[in-house]
Amino acid sequence: MAAWTHMDENGRPTMVNVSEKTDTTRRAVAGGSVYMAPETLAKIKDGGIQKGDVLSVAQTAGIMAAKETARAIPMCHNLFLAGVAMDFTLDTESAAIHITADAEAVGKTGVEMEALYAVSVAALTIYDMCKAVDKGMRIADIRLLHKTGGRSGCFVASGAGAIVASINVSAETGTVKSPVREALFLAGKGIAGDAHCGLDAEKQVSLLAEESADKIRKMGLAVSAGAFAENITTKGIDLHTLPVGAKLRIGETLQAITRIGKDCHNSGCAIKRQTGTCVMPTEGVFARVLVGGAVRVGDGITVLPQDGG
């Protein structure tokens, strides 16, 4: 039987020592829902719950919970959180409140438990605030939606939507791109500080799906984000199946796909020379920045309806 990581040689609980791990930016988003009677949801929306503003109290409770996670979960490490954001969506069709918690830290271990605990306590707080009028409320579907950072890299739960797995820039053309935590995208130009910014109106931003890169990894070649010279590495979306003209909401930006694939260099890139193939020429995507703004690793990606802006 495999050795337990949270037990010492005497079979007693112990906290894993993470001192040898590298500090990286960690981000996790968790979600969950509280289902209730339609009348209860209406009271929350209209401020009719006698105890007070339900969502404000739940938001505060979620943030406080994230900060106290290590006190509640025995083997969790204490983290210095960089930020915690709570979001509540009132769903009248399902008579539910959908909760998300977004936690971020720079450290040696992830913030998944902080995000999950924040959602859990926020949901319990909604129940507590409303139990006098609706004891039949149901808390459900609490789960990790996505995370970035750390040894395991990027994770996106099934059905959770697409996210930015990596942002990669280089100061000079023809050089390897390096990952950055956040970048400023300029309308009509590209990424501020990237060598390709403003050079080509139709190829302002290059994108490649992590799923495409996985095809090369399965051939035995270890390739990291940015290895294909893509500016944005995505997770959870089949980029190359989208039509030219499709619009993507990425972080604060709005981008339009201008091209699928590209011509490979005459001699082929290093990846093609080693594996005999490459994914960027067939599955890489290029986009034009319609609306500028900041994009961070872990930001969501939404494909807008074809007739939408």
Description:
The chain folds into 2 domains: 24-156, 2-Layer Sandwich (Alpha-Beta Plaits); 162-303, PK beta-barrel domain-like (M1 Pyruvate Kinase, Domain 3), CATH 2.40.33. β10 (205-209), α5 and β11 (232-235) form a beta-alpha-beta unit. It has 7 helices and 16 strands. The protein is globular. The chain starts with 23 loop residues before the first strand and ends in a 6-residue tail after the last strand. With 309 residues, it is α+β, with helices and mostly antiparallel strands. The chain has helices spanning 38-46, 54-67, 69-72, 112-130, 210-217, 270-275, 280-283; strands spanning 24-35, 81-91, 96-107, 138-148, 155-156, 162-169, 178-180, 182-186, 190-191, 205-209, 232-235, 247-250, 253-260, 285-291, 293-296, 300-303. The strands form 3 sheets. A 7-stranded mixed β-barrel has the order 6-11-10-14-13-12-16. A 5-stranded antiparallel β-sheet has the order 2-3-1-4-5, covered by helices on one side. The model is unreliable at 270-276 (pLDDT under 50).
Summarize the model shown.
This protein is an alpha+beta fold. The protein contains 7 helices and 16 strands.
Topology of this protein?
Elements: E1 24-35, H1 38-46, H2 54-67, H3 69-72, E2 81-91, E3 96-107, H4 112-130, E4 138-148, E5 155-156, E6 162-169, E7 178-180, E8 182-186, E9 190-191, E10 205-209, H5 210-217, E11 232-235, E12 247-250, E13 253-260, H6 270-275, H7 280-283, E14 285-291, E15 293-296, E16 300-303
Parallel strand pairs: 10-11
Antiparallel strand pairs: 1-3, 1-4, 2-3, 4-5, 6-7, 6-11, 6-16, 8-9, 8-15, 10-14, 12-13, 12-16, 13-14
Helix pairs in contact: 2-4
